[in-house]
Amino acid sequence: MPKQKKIEPLVGEELLKKVKELENESKEDKAKKCGYYTVTKNGIERVNMMKFLNALIDAEGIQLDSAPNANGRGGRSASYRISVQSNGNLLIGSAYTKQMNLKPGDEFLITLGKKHIRLRQVDADDREGIEAEEATA
After folding, report:
1. Cβ of 54: how many Cβ atoms within 10 Å?
2. What is the pTM (predicted TM-score) of this model?
3. Whole-angstrom Cα distance, residue 23 to residue 16?
């Protein structure tokens, strides 16, 4: 039995391209053909699906782990759901502001709809327009 040369596992764009080429193959075959397998002492090939799937997640740029904060501990992650508090406030937590790279002092315009609230970040042009409106009022 000729020994098959094991390929180095593909990552990033190469991995995504190869998986697209193999779209009609099973996920195990895709993993194997992308280099995510090992050969045991007895010559049996074992597909490493976990490494393959993690490499795909990384290649797509999906971040499953929350980024650690300054003191090295992970914080709460965003659930994309909030509730009105007992005092009537609607609080948008730091998980969202960190994800959007917002800084203290960033301003937003609030637009209320029948069943939605829209926030639009105020930029320099908006500030000038708001200040002009306030000056004439």
Report:
1. 13
2. 0.45
3. 11
DSSP string for residues in the chain: -PPPPPPPPP-HHHHHHHHHHTTTS-HHHHHHHTT-EEE-TTS-EEE-HHHHHHHHHHHHT---SPPP-TTS---PPP-S---B-TTS-B---HHHHHHTT--TT--EEEEE-SS-EEEEE--HHHHHHHHHHHHH-
Asked if 36 and 49 count as a contact pair (C-beta separation under 8 A), the reply is yes
Query: For residue range 60-91, what is the model confidence (pLDDT) as tens digits?
Result: 877 776 555 544 555 555 667 788 888 888 88
Going from N- to C-terminal start, the domains of the chain cover: 12-60, 94-136
> What is d(CA 131, CA 38) in angstroms, rounded to the nearest whole number?
66
